[in-house]
Write a sequence for this structure.
């Protein structure tokens, strides 16, 4: 067993460090210490994203004909790059539903023309996506969704409602699960459609969240007409395509890099406040350190299992549950260490790190719930991971 | 990089597991637990025959010259079987202290005896030594009631004292975990001229202690996983209110939480063992952090899995308490989680 990366990628490390040196001024910091005016933040993030794509650090394995760098898939090289960015405290680019979830799905299921049109602007941060999955009556039981489309000539006409749609107002496009075949059963009648957020008949209403941001929305569809060619995969294949996308959601929600950046930020606060010398705070910090390190190496184990095509057993099922809770607990320690300063929110005088700790503390709670609640995760772990029986269906009343 | 066991490591794990299941089944464990002494004369010899006592001993001394990864694999299986043996002390700490000392010929026969399972040495860290004499009492010493010799450590220097040396008194203490016993040893002003001076240094002692901490963490992980396995097995069979209890989310979620906590510890254990094998200074924070985290997780795991059994989980008849107590012993020995977190913090945030 060799749990180290070793020296094989030393030249890649050197190359990454030279890139940092040459692009120092444009680099977007990772972790809690970045924020401020929203449009300025967005401008810097997109500019940085494009430099990363041009240098082959973002979109690394996307074929060149779709705007990527076309590197051979090499998860260990990706890991080395992640490590270097993390050690330098620099962002490895945009992580959103378009880049992290839609693009890999499109690469797998999409037509050539769809890939040609959509991947390049998406990975360059020019085309922002939102995900139209959940509905008021279909949360954890997603396949019961009812937003439906009927074919009229060469167009689908969509009616219905989506909810919890993150970033719908900022998004240019949506990928959505829509019921296109009424008689094909619960899972069989769904198609995976993409549509422009400018399409007439779409109405986006913000849902203010507890963080104070309107990061969620309700999206209403009234006779929204979408070309029938906008289906990804086959009509009726939507459940398969959509659950493929969700795999990447669990990866995105459960990443440990962000956790490590925040833990490092937490240590900065403890140092600044002098609390690093308090045995009580040190104990809390080291408890988190143990969990963070365990999850870090757990994820490396899952990675090498994938590379060796080894079954990870229940190992993959626990990542989302653990990391979301861990992110929450790291923010909690930072806020406690701020004492009364911890009550401030974004925009206030004296607020630390643009209020990112307070925002992310609540946002992490949203992620504990979102993407399959912690309770649903525990059902999955118990049933698929441990072979415990499902809850019996209640008798009809 | 590969976090999987190599093929030889898999074979090692399987052969140890097979030996423990067949040779040291739970009935034998219970007989040792219920005995007055808590000692099974034959077990060390059997472990020696299997090559388990000599995993870390060099080949030319009769061992298999493997590393901490293999020792951790063995320790985890031993914890899983609740085998009545202080592996961390007699098979990790003792041979590593001796092997890393510069005692030359004075060590002769010692490592060979450990590898064969014929010699059992109890190390005593920070022994009460002064002016060339050892004088005082040391409690909580694993295997001390039946050890062949005591390995006295003082600021890195090692002195081996035969257990039959006049002036040594041994008083067994009663442990909660009856699979492993400790005793108090009293030295009545014994001249160290009676001991074999094996040399040694402080760095060697620290490294050996890190290894023993890793072994205790592995033992706790093995016990916690076994506890989860038997709790899940019970939850899949036991019926209440006409339902398999594992279908109740209250029970299912307990099991899921335990799995979610325990599973990542495996990877941290493997990595820490690898860091030890590689000889990096990072072991100064990894070993204490691992033992703190692993034994905390194990304590929480057995607390929850015991409850899956309901009332039967509180009985002597149910095996669960064996693993519950096993995790408790691993937690306390060679640094409890709170003390070890402080130690890791000192290394990480000086």
């Amino acid at each position: 067993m060799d749990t180290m990366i070793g020296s094989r990628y030393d030249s890649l490390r050197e190359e990454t460090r030279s890139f940092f040196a040459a692009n120092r001024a444009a680099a977007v910091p990772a972790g809690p210490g970045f924020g401020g005016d929203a449009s300025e933040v967005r401008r810097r993030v997109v500019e940085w994203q494009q430099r990363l794509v041009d240098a082959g650090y973002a979109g690394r394995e996307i074929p060149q004909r779709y705007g990527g760098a076309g590197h051979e898939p090499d998860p260990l090289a990706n890991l080395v790059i992640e490590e270097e960015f993390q050690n330098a405290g620099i962002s490895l680019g945009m992580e959103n539903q378009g880049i992290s979830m839609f693009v890999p799905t499109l690469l797998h299921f999409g037509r050539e023309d769809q890939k040609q049109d959509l991947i390049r602007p998406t990975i360059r941060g020019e085309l922002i996506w939102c995900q139209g999955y959940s509905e008021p009556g279909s949360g954890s039981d997603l396949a019961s969704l009812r937003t439906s489309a009927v074919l009229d000539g060469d167009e689908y006409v969509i009616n219905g409602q989506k909810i919890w749609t993150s970033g719908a107002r900022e998004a240019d496009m949506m990928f959505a699960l829509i019921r296109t075949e009424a008689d094909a059963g619960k899972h069989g009648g769904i198609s995976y459609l993409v549509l422009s957020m400018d399409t007439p008949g779409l109405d986006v209403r913000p849902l203010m969240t507890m963080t104070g941001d309107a990061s969620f929305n309700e999206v209403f569809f009234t006779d929204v007409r979408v070309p029938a060619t906008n289906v990804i995969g086959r009509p009726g294949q939507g459940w398969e395509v959509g659950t493929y996308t969700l795999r990447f959601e669990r990866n995105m929600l459960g990443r440990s890099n962000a956790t490590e950046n925040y833990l490092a930020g937490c240590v900065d606060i403890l140092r600044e406040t002098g609390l690093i010398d308090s045995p009580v705070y040190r104990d809390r910090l080291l408890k988190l350190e143990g969990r963070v390190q365990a999850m870090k190496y757990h994820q490396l184990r899952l990675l090498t299992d994938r590379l060796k095509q080894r079954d990870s057993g229940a190992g993959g099922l626990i990542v989302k549950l653990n990391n979301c809770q861990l992110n929450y607990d790291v923010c909690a320690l930072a806020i406690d260490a701020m004492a009364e300063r911890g009550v401030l929110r974004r925009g206030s005088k004296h607020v630390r790190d643009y209020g990112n700790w307070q925002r992310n503390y609540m946002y992490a709670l949203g992620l504990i719930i979102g993407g399959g609640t912690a309770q649903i995760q525990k059902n999955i772990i118990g049933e698929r991971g441990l072979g415990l029986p499902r809850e019996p269906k209640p008798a009809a009343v | 990089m590969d976090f999987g066991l190599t093929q030889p490591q898999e074979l090692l794990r399987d052969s140890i597991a097979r030996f423990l299941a067949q040779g040291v089944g739970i009935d034998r464990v219970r007989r040792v637990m219920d005995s007055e002494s808590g000692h099974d004369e034959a077990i060390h010899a059997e472990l020696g025959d299997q090559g388990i006592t000599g995993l870390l001993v060099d080949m030319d001394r009769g061992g298999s010259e493997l590393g901490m990864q293999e020792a951790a694999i063995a320790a985890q299986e031993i914890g899983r079987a609740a085998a009545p043996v202080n592996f961390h002390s007699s098979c990790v700490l003792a041979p590593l202290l001796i092997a890393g000392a510069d005692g030359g010929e004075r060590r002769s026969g010692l490592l060979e005896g450990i590898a064969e399972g014929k010699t059992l040495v109890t190390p005593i860290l920070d022994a009460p030594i002064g002016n060339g004499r050892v004088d005082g009492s040391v409690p909580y010493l694993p295997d001390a009631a039946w050890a062949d010799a005591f390995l006295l450590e003082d600021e890195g220097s090692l002195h081996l004292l035969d257990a039959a040396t006049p002036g040594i008194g041994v008083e067994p203490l009663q442990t909660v975990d009856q699979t492993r016993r400790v005793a108090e040893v009293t030295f009545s002003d014994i001249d160290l001229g009676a001991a074999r001076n094996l040399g040694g240094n402080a760095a060697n002692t620290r490294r050996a202690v890190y290894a023993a901490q890793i072994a205790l963490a592995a033992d706790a992980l093995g016990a916690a996983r076994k506890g989860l396995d038997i709790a899940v097995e019970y939850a899949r069979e036991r019926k209440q209110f006409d339902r398999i209890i594992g279908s109740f989310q209250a029970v299912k979620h307990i099991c899921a939480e335990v799995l979610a906590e325990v599973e990542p510890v495996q990877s941290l254990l493997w990595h820490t063992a690898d860091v030890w094998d590689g000889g990096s200074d990072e072991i100064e924070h990894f070993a204490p952090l691992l033992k703190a985290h692993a034994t905390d997780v194990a304590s929480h795991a057995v607390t929850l899995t015991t409850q899956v059994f309901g009332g039967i989980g509180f009985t002597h008849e149910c095996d669960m308490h064996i693993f519950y107590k096993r995790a408790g012993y691993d937690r306390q020995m060679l640094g409890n989680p709170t003390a070890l977190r402080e130690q890791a913090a000192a290394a990480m945030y000086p």
